[in-house]
Amino acid sequence: MLMDDLRHNQAVLRELMAHHIHREGNFPWFYRDNQPEGWVTIGVGCLVKKKDDARKLPTIPGVTFYTVHNTIASPDDIPVQLVQVH
Question: Closest by alpha carbon to 48, among 39, 57, 60, 37?
């Protein structure tokens, strides 16, 4: 499988999602990854370690995170969840 801009190639996105769900499961929440130590999986194939990196995520076009109350997460909401997982 060749990587592509997944925002514009739904076929590749479906293939990648099927691979990740089969390999890791489908978790609608952040979870601590076993490898490498100290990293948190926050999306399909996306690991974050630093709160500052997590804070930047909702500023990426096309990326949206939701709170447990189903509202759009702010840049300050995500690091709070990251710390709770650590």
Answer: 39
Q: Confidence class of residue 2 from pLDDT cuts 50, 70 and 90?
A: low
pLDDT score of 70 more than 60: yes
36/42 Cα distance (integer angstroms): 14
Do residues 38 and 86 make contact, with C-beta atoms less than 8 angstroms apart?
A: yes
Q: Which two tokens stand for residue 40?
A: 């948190």
Q: Hey, what long-range contacts does 77-80 have (CB within 8 A, 24 or more apart)?
A: 78/42, 78/54, 79/51, 79/52, 79/54, 79/55
Question: Alpha carbon 84 to chain centroid distance?
Answer: 15
Instruction: Please list the helix, strand and coil fractions of the chain in percent, rounded to the nearest 5, in that order.
Output: 40, 15, 50
Q: Report pTM.
A: 0.55
pLDDT of residue 1: 46
